Amino acid sequence: MIFKKLTMKNFRVFNGEHSLDLQPKKDGLLSKPIILFGGLNGAGKTSILTAIRLLLLGRRALSSIPNNKEYADYLSQQLNNKAKKEDNSAKASISLAFTHTHQGKHGVFTITRTWGVDGKEKISFEHADEDSNLTSEQIQSVISEMIPPGIGDLFFFDGEKIAELAEDDTGVYLKEAVQKLLGLDIIERLNIDLDIYLNKESEGKASATIQKEITDLQKQKESFKAEAEAYKEQANELYPKITSLRFEMSQIEKSIQERGGAFAITRDEEKGKQKSLEREIDTIKGKVLHELDGAFPLSLAPNAINGLFQQLAKEKELKAKQSFNEHFLAQTEKLATTLSSALAADEVQVNELLKTYMESEGRTNAEGTINLDISDREFHQLESLRDDASESKARLSNTLSELTAAESDLDSLTLRIQRAPDEKELIGLYERLRELDKAVAKEKDVYKDVLQKAQTSMAKALELAKRLEKLFNQQKNEKSLQKAVARVSSTQGALQEFSKQLTQLRVAQLEELFALAYRKLARKEDLKLTAKINPETFDVALVDLDGMEINRKSLSAGEKQIFAFAILEALGKLSGKVLPVVVDTPLGRLDSKHRDKLIKHYFPEAGEQVILLSTDTEVDADFYSILQPEVSHAFEINFDEATRCSSVTEGYFWENEKAEIA
Amino acid sequence: MLPNRMQLSRTVEEQLKKLKGYTGVTPNVSARIAFFRSIESDFRYDPATEYATNGSLTLDKITWLGRTQEMTELLLKHTYPDLEGKQLQQAWAAHVEHGVGNLRNFRTLRDISAYSIKSKV
Questions:
Q1: Residues A439 and A363 in one domain
Q2: A124 found inside a domain
Q3: Which of A90, A101, A294, A469 has its Cα between 20 and 30 A from that of B107?
């Protein structure tokens, strides 16, 4: 297959129609396989790769296979913006003419895909010799026959993205492609066809009653299965209900907790306590007031009262003396007579003496005055009052500490009561909680019931499946079938064996080719590496000198790219398919040595036609001069900032400059 | 001795009434506390100044003074030996006014009684 001409109209950055001649030219007998596209980032290199992939792979060109609407959206996005703005009914089209040998006919084929803003695509397919009236689907399947979809990715790819191939150790990327390329899928298809043949054969030959039974049972089985599925779905719908109820419950529990639910329970009790405490405090206060109302105030003036008592004592003494004096004076004359007669002295003289004494005594007494003049009884009353006062003070002190304790008890109790929410407030929440609890229990029962039903239906379906199997076996045993079965099973055995052998052979060849390709592209130190391909998963492993597997995850991005290129080359060679190779951003992550290897050894030998889409830093002046003998012709894509569209001119970056200078 | 019916100054009377509102201690009892606090201090009434006892609360001596009556009268007589009757009553009123100074700021019964107990041993 050789691409002859690519035409793009209003496709992505390309406004209007652009035609590119892709046919490699020959220099005498030497072929020049490389068509080089140069363009800066965003110029439209990837648009060319996309156009080719889209043309040949259709919707499989996208990384994940889209549904109709997604594909239409995608296509409408690929319409050039400028064209869309200028004309709402603008159409985009891409078209590729290529030579190919298909079903023994060699000739030029042209595929054209046209779509408008709505993304509805029209495919036309022309063969040089004849007009074909095929539907879009038919055309797509013809194209798929020429280029199997799994293979497209191996020939038309983005150099940077292809590194994913090396990272993948599941074999997803390679398995399909390898099987298709090596023709292994045909064997599998044959196997499946044989199964179908056998089933049809056995159905046709079975006796009418058994056949009827089989169809009945199949129907029943299906209906049970559907029933089970329906129940399961119902259960799935029920489950979120339970979770949401549970969630609500936990919310309510949380809010009860937040409002001090625990306090609420003891609230009434505490209110009672509060009342009795209040009463107690009132009593204590009464006691305090009573003390204050009694003798207590006297204790506030101990010094003043002491002073007063001193005075009172002094007055008492004074009064005693005065009364003694009075008594004494009253007795003086009598005393003088008695004394003078007893002492035989002059009575007058004695009387005189006594009077003088009394007078001098009386004078000293006169220094104190009696102001307050209280009776002895009153004095004793005052004394006992003073004692009362100090006792009262002691009592008051005790009563006060009682009061302080009671009041602080009340304070903390009041605080607790305040913190506790009103029970009424919580009652609603508790009720809701109980309701929810019931609801959850109910939903759970329903859920369990539905699950149970699903299980029962499933069990029934399984039972029927067993019976069906028995019936099928019974049929197979019927004579008329025996031969066919034997034939088929022996053929299948042979096919399996063949497939195994073929795979092993192919894998061995692929390993050899891969190692060859890898050595060619890799640096010197990697030259001793060999490859090992798992024949079941088609996972490629690198093996070093000592037979140790190298972990591909530890490879650098550049090394991965080289690894991927090697796989591609090996596969391409082994498949014998002669497809053009289109590579976008071929050298992105590579160092100078790897670039060198790739430029010298890969591109010139990759195929009969190699389309390279490169920036000026990838294939730069040096590489260009190395490549030049192999380059058929080159294009440069220029992006015009003003129109935000690109145009393609012949020549490569430096060629054009040279031309301008000349 | 003190006359049988006694009054305080209007401001002191108001203060005592307020105090009753806060603490429950009646004016006569708080007046007693105030008097004894004051008589213990260095404050002395100067008879030369005319002291206005213009309060509206005119009570019996026995109601004002209760069990402290005798001691109050003796203390007054002892401190002011030259005063009699009306002047003695004014001295009492002046002491109450002086003594109520600190008390009037109390807001609870506990505070006022605790303060009373603590003040001077």
A1: no
A2: no
A3: A294
- Tell me the sheet residues that pair with A2: A99
- On the question of pLDDT at B48 being above 50, the answer is yes
Q: Which chain B residues touch A308 with a CB distance below 8 Å? A: 71, 74-75, 78
Q: Are A279 and A342 members of one domain?
A: yes
Closest CA to B55 of B88, B80, B27: B27
Within 8 A of A401 by CB-CB distance, chain B residues are: none
Tell if the CB–CB gap between B33 and A288 is shorter than 8 Å: no
Total number of domains in chain A: 2
Q: Is residue A113 part of a domain?
A: no
Residues in CB range of A492: below 8 A, 6 or more apart? A191, A194
Buried-state track A24-54, b at ≥16 Cβ within 10 A, e below 16: beeeeeeebbbbbbbbeeebbbbbbbbbbbb
How much is the ipTM here? Answer: 0.89
Note the pLDDT of residue A560.
Answer: 78
Nearest to A400 among B35, B77, B114 (CB): B114
Q: How does strand A156-158 pair with strand A581-584?
A: parallel
Is A385 in the B-facing interface, judged by CB distances under 8 Å? Answer: yes
Residue of A288, A305, A404 lying closest to B71 (CB–CB): A305
**Torsion angle of the four alpha carbons B45, B47, B49, B51, in this order, in degrees rounded to the nearest 10:** 70
A312 and chain B in contact, CB less than 8 A: yes
- By Cβ distance, the residue of A294, A301, A374 closest to B39 is A301
CATH of the domain at B41: 1.10.1220.160
Selection from A10, A9, A30 nearest residue A19 by Cα? A9
Would strands A540-543 and A530-533 be described as parallel, antiparallel, or unpaired? antiparallel
How much is the pLDDT for A662? Answer: 46
* CB proximity A285 to B under 8 Å: yes
What is the mean pLDDT of the segment spanning B42-65?
85
pLDDT at residue A95, rounded to an integer: 92
Identify the pLDDT of residue A96: 92
Which range, of A355-369, A454-468, B6-20, B22-36, averages the lowest pLDDT?
A355-369
What is the chain A residue with the closest CA to B109?
A285
Q: In whole angstroms, what is the distance from residue A508 CA to residue A531 CA?
A: 10
Whether residues A292 and B78 touch (CB distance < 8 A) is answered with no
Determine the pLDDT at residue A478: 66
Contacts of A296 in chain B (CB under 8 A): 33, 116
Work out the minimum CA distance from B16 to partner chain A, whole angstroms.
15
Per-residue pLDDT band for B77 (boundaries 50, 70, 90) equals confident
Of B26, B33, B113, the CB nearest to A288: B113
- The answer to whether B40 contacts A303, with C-beta atoms less than 8 Å apart, is yes
Range of A239's domain? 206-260+424-477
| Number of domains composing chain B | 1
CA distance B54 to chain A (A): 25
CB atoms within 10 A of CB A596: 17
Q: Which residues are CB-contacts of B117 (< 8 A; sequence separation ≥ 6)?
A: A393, A396, A397, A400
HSE at residue A518, side-chain half, CA atoms within 13 A, is 27
Instruction: Report the residue of chain A nearest B40, measured CA to CA.
Output: A301
Would residue A272 count as lying in a domain?
yes
Q: Which of A420, A454, A488 is the last residue of a domain?
A: A420
Judged by CB atoms closer than 8 Å, whether chains meet at B77 and A288 is answered as no
Average pLDDT, 10 consecutive residues per value, chain A (662 residues): 90 89 82 87 87 87 79 88 84 90 80 88 79 75 77 78 68 70 76 79 66 83 89 87 88 77 68 88 90 87 87 85 80 76 74 76 62 81 88 89 90 79 72 88 91 90 87 68 76 85 85 84 70 78 78 75 81 77 81 82 82 85 83 87 83 67 49
Closest to B74 (Cβ–Cβ): which among A300, A302, A308?
Answer: A308
A-chain residue closest to B63, CA distance: A293
